[in-house]
């Protein structure tokens, strides 16, 4: 992988590229790759690691990702996309080809990154966002939740997963109708099942409701994750929004037209 990526650097020396303050960028994302699972895109830039500007060359960065996989310690990376930045955890090699940015783009990214705040790695957790064709977005954390194990119905209510909730309640009711001991066993087994694959349950439920895997990011709260999604798609909609209503270009255009008309009078 390192050799292939280095060949994509237009025969430039990696150490010289690093010293020139250029950044590593993703050149291509294969359909079946870890980069695809993280919903990274062609042209995304590796801007920082643990909040510090990334001055690694491609080989060093790939070695860092290999160590992350072997040590089971994710690398905390800041991604630059268009005019925005967001954080993400990487747990292994991306599986795509890498390249370097040109110096002008690198200088622009570095100048904008100076105004981007990154907190301590321990404060962040991974969020996944799924979006449907109407741009309605569901966001959930992939971290373990004790509520899912202790009381699956409440956890399902929190995530508004009504069909799984109905199934769990039906299982409880059927077990209780047979014998109280069977009810206890059912509660324990369902709790153990939710403990093991809880976030996959929510992901699969949202896919069932015609939401599609869209964004993966690291954030300190749901509100921060929503801000990232809103930057990526200004028109995305959340059921319980922390970032206000989505952008409405039609409404804004009408307001702008009215302002222009008043100014012309």
| Overall pLDDT level | 86
How much β-strand is present in the residues?
15-25%
Distance between the termini: 64 Å
Classification by helices and strands: alpha+beta
Number of helices: 11
- Shape category: elongated
**Secondary structure: number of strands:** 10
The biggest beta sheet reads: 6 strands, antiparallel
Based on CA atoms alone, the radius of gyration comes out at 23 Å
Element string (H = helix, E = strand): HHEHEEHEEEHEEHHHHEHEH
Helix content: 40-55%
Which residues sit in consecutive blocks of at least 5 with pLDDT less than 50?
1-20
Question: Main traits of this protein?
Answer:
265 residues, alpha+beta, six-stranded antiparallel beta sheet, four-stranded mixed beta sheet, 11 helices, 10 strands, disordered N terminus
Detailed description of the structure:
With 265 residues, the chain is an alpha+beta fold. The chain has 11 helices and 10 strands. The strands form 2 sheets. Strands 1, 2, 3, 4, 5 and 6 form a 6-stranded antiparallel sheet that branches. It has a 4-stranded mixed sheet with strand order 9-7-8-10, with helices on both faces.
What's the arrangement of secondary structure elements?
Blueprint: H1 2-7, H2 14-19, E1 24-28, H3 34-37, E2 45-49, E3 52-53, H4 58-71, E4 75-81, E5 84-90, E6 97-100, H5 103-113, E7 125-131, E8 136-141, H6 146-150, H7 152-158, H8 162-178, H9 180-208, E9 212-219, H10 222-232, E10 237-238, H11 249-264
Parallel strand pairs: 8-10
Antiparallel strand pairs: 1-2, 1-6, 2-3, 2-4, 4-5, 7-8, 7-9
